[in-house]
Design goal:
154 residues; 77% helix
Length: 154
């Protein structure tokens, strides 16, 4: 059985999952604190997809923590298949939400110049939330790539 960085039941996998949770929660918190975020469907979609990513990553982090504490091996075909499907579905939803929110943020900031004229829109908060969500997606992309390669080696 291959031992890859970020695999299930390893400390690196636990750290990846906790990073996904941390950046996903930060993205949600910054977006919710921005006034007027609910005016754009893309921002609401970002919050929903980051919520799903946080729940998925937190569940797998708890499973990794349990496997580390009880010295169990999570690298079997059934677990890895579930991890691969869940990671890829979550990664695709998260990437589409981040791209949509980034597009709307660019539209507000650069095309409509809504950040410079009243009523002011919280462009800095939107940009920060999108950046945090992208980092969270990047960590999820790493773990989904590792899960795919682990499944291929079985």
């Amino acid at each position: 059985m291959k031992e890859l960085f970020g695999g299930p039941g390893r400390v690196s996998g636990l750290l990846l999952r906790l990073g996904q949770c941390l950046f996903g929660c930060a993205s949600i918190g910054v977006m919710i604190s921005a006034p007027g975020f609910f005016n754009s469907t893309a921002f609401c979609y970002l919050i929903a997809s980051m919520g799903l990513e946080v729940l998925w990553s937190l569940g797998l982090a708890i499973l990794d923590l349990h496997a580390l504490s009880s010295k169990k091996n999570l690298q079997n075909h059934v677990f890895l298949s579930l991890f691969v499907v869940g990671d890829w579905v979550t990664a695709i939803l998260s990437l589409s939400a981040v791209c949509a929110a980034a597009g709307v943020t660019v539209l507000y900031a650069r095309d409509l110049h809504s950040c410079k004229k009243p009523p002011y829109i919280s462009c800095n908060e939107f940009q920060l939330s999108v950046a945090l969500a992208f980092i969270s997606w990047f960590l999820l992309a790493i773990s989904s790539h590792v899960m795919f390669w682990l499944l291929a080696t079985i």
